[in-house]
Task: inverse folding
């Protein structure tokens, strides 16, 4: 009897030890499973210019591709602005060409002829003055006549100087400062044309990425200000999963680690992803993924980029993440 009791106690001890070691082995070698949620980025789209909406080309729920035109403003005012800017550009270009070419040869010849005419007039006035000066000494003419001849000579000489300066100015052409100012005006006009083209192009609203329209905020005919939200878009790429990992397991998830993702709606069709970011700061487990035993646990936020998203993943969808298949 005593021997039987001893054998039973030995079997109980062996069973207890075996179970303990088995349970420890099972825990240590069990696949590591994390929980997280799908995180899809969205963007609010609006025009960079103000105006009246002419056309809304998509509706809520429509799928769009990057570069698709989804809305357009009435562009007539901006077309007129472009026409005005191009006219100002042509005027500035003509003014610069004029200043670079200088004055016309006909204008220079006209100034030279005027100078010759004034020189002839001055030469005749000098001869009259010299005769009057010789006669006034012998009282052959009155003092008044002499003074009139002297004044006419001085006036003719000044007219010669004015004509000489005018001819020199025409032959020299426009000053460098005037040409530089005309060139600056041309550059300003060119910039105004480019700006008008950009503003005209901004009357068309294009999708920045592949996605799905989730909000259509306004309708055709509405007046919108620059930057006001017209549509909200849910982007299809990238699709992320935000998960949380405990500090002891942190070393198992360096950036670049391959993982498997499973959703409750499709447990037999897993997704695959890559760890792209691990937060350097610890935080408490968020309400959306915590369990009772995790309420006071500190974890590290981790972002997983889904490689094979097929459009079935939705914002906030719970996801189970594991390493066993990846390894």
Result:
């Amino acid at each position: 009897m005593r021997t039987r009791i001893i054998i039973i106690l030995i079997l109980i001890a062996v069973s207890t030890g075996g179970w303990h070691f088995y349970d420890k082995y099972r825990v240590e070698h069990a696949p590591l499973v994390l929980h997280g949620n799908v995180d899809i980025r969205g963007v609010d789209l609006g025009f960079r210019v103000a105006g009246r909406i002419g056309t809304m080309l998509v509706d809520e729920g429509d799928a769009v591709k990057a570069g698709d035109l989804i809305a357009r403003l009435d562009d007539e005012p901006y077309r007129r602005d472009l026409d005005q800017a191009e006219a100002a550009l042509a005027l500035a270009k003509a003014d610069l060409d004029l200043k670079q070419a200088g004055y016309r040869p006909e204008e220079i010849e006209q100034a030279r002829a005027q100078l010759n005419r004034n020189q002839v007039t001055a030469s005749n006035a000098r001869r009259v003055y010299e005769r009057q000066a010789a006669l006034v000494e012998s009282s052959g003419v009155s003092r008044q006549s002499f003074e009139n001849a002297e004044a006419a000579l001085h006036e003719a000489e000044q007219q010669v100087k004015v004509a000489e300066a005018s001819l020199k100015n025409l032959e020299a052409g426009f000053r460098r400062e005037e040409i530089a100012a005309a060139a600056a005006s041309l550059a300003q006009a060119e910039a105004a044309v480019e700006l008008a083209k950009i503003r005209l192009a901004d009357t068309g609203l294009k999708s920045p990425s592949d996605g799905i329209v989730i909000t259509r905020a306004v309708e055709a005919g509405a007046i919108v200000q620059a930057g006001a939200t017209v549509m909200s878009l849910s982007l299809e790429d990238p699709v992320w999963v935000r998960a949380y990992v405990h500090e002891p397991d942190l070393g198992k998830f360096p950036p670049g680690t391959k993982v498997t993702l499973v959703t409750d709606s499709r447990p037999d069709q897993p997704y695959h992803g890559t760890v792209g970011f691990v937060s350097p700061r610890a935080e408490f487990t968020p309400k959306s993924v915590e369990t009772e035993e995790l309420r006071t646990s500190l974890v590290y936020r981790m972002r997983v980029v889904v490689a094979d998203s097929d459009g079935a993943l939705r914002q906030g969808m719970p996801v189970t993440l594991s390493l066993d298949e990846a390894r």
About this structure: The chain has three domains: 30-40+237-322, 43-75+202-232, 82-197. The helical segments are 2-29, 76-101, 105-137, 143-172, 176-201.
